[in-house]
Structure formats: C-alpha cells, structure tokens
Amino acid sequence: MPVAGGVRLRIRVQPRASRTEVAGPHGDELRIRLAAPPVDGAANDALLRFLAEVLRVPRAHVVLIAGGASRSKVVEVRGADEGNVRAQLGFPNA
Q: What is the pTM of this model?
C-alpha cells in the first residue's frame, strides 16, 4: 500500500527455509522464505537485506515497521513506487 514517501508491504516470512526467495502471494501478504533462523533478529535482518537487494534500493530505505517477533510483518520501502515494487517482487496488483 502506498504511503507518504514510499510503500508499505505486508509480508509473511518462513524462516529456516532451504533458500531465501519470494514465494508469492499469501492472502493479502507476500510470502518470503528466509534461510536465516528466527534467532536474535537474524531473520528480520535477512529480510530487510533481501528486500533491499531485490528492489535495488539502499538497505537504509527498507524499514521494519511492525512484527519484529512475528511471522507477519509490515515493512516500509522509502522512496519507492508501488507499481515498481509489486513488479519486482512478482506481487499481483490489488
């Protein structure tokens, strides 16, 4: 969903997967598999680094807004366009 200055994404993570990848839509969220374990914030850090790499934005532009201890998270990508973010992640338009 677009917000002032960027885009917010609802993400469902699956930690300890065999590899880090976008798995596709999961209801109104985007499922992302992470190779990192959910220990000491490793999965959150891996998620933010992965999104920055896929979206080709600086890591500092990808911020965890909610869900630090949950599999369902809200991430904000600052300075991004919703259409471009959805296209790069393979997330269908709502």
A: 0.88
